[in-house]
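// run 5 | inverse folding | seed 20
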């Protein structure tokens, strides 16, 4: 589900501001962006977010306001090693001038900030700001979830009506199919000496294969399960998706078994509504 939240907290580095955004995704994918002064806390921030969220592609952006500039220290061993390498390259190229110190500016991470603050205090402030942003994000997602629940409730009612419509239209379909088969066989076998018992057996097998009562029963059961899930406060997106997938399979089997166009048309409407519900369910956690 989509959402946005912001949280703040005071820390030894200044005010930590966290913005959390989420968009639809089948699983949980957390991406954290931190300023340089908080670079060592990336894994911690991701763990906090994963403990509070269960689904969606989540982007966590953190920045510090009014941060004090920490003192820095030179990595002397690395600087000396870099100068030696530069001198070796100059010698190999036949250059006589000395290697300028300005070349050290091209060496990444040569100056490191010296920790002068309470690391645990900074981490706890980051946790507080991140959790507040997630609370705000969840509030927005709750509002969206309320709208989605109402929409899915209407669609479930429509599906239940369509299942009942298919059941009503399919009532007696087996007997009508049997009558049509018998009439067709009578025309095709007129004047032929055939085993009537064997023919009747084949008709019975064909009619049994066209029976749709089992599929209709399972569809009705799945509708009841979805109605119960729609009132559950815990995340139900995956279970919704699974049940709708099973209902789509039942509807496909139902359509393959239909022997009357009137019933087939009702099944097509049912399949269309189920597909729209599956698209909507991708937005649910």
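// decoded
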């Amino acid at each position: 589900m989509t959402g946005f939240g912001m949280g703040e907290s005071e820390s030894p580095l200044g005010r930590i501001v966290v913005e959390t955004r989420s968009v639809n995704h089948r699983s949980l994918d957390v991406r954290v962006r931190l300023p340089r002064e908080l670079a060592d806390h990336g894994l911690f921030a991701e763990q906090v977010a994963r403990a509070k969220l269960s689904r969606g592609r989540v982007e966590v952006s953190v920045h510090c306001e009014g941060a004090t500039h920490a003192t820095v220290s030179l990595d002397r061993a690395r600087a000396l090693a870099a100068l030696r390498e530069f001198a070796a390259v100059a010698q190999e190229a036949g250059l006589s001038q000395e290697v300028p110190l300005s070349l050290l500016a091209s060496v990444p991470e040569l100056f490191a900030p010296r920790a002068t603050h309470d690391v645990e205090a900074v981490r706890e402030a980051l946790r507080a700001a991140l959790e507040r942003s997630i609370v705000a994000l969840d509030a927005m997602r709750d509002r969206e979830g309320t709208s989605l629940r109402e929409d899915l409730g209407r669609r479930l009612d429509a599906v239940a009506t369509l299942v009942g419509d298919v059941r009503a239209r399919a009532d007696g379909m087996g007997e009508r199919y049997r009558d049509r088969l018998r009439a067709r066989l009578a025309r095709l076998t007129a004047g032929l000496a055939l085993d009537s018992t064997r023919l009747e057996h084949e008709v019975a097998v064909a009619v049994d294969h066209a029976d749709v009562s089992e599929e209709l029963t399972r569809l009705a059961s799945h509708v009841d399960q979805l109605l119960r899930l729609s009132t559950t406060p815990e995340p139900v997106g995956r279970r919704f998706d699974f049940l709708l997938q099973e209902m789509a399979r039942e509807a496909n089997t139902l359509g393959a078994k239909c022997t009357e166009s009137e019933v087939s048309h009702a099944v097509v409407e049912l399949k269309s509504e189920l597909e729209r519900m599956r698209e909507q369910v991708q937005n649910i956690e």
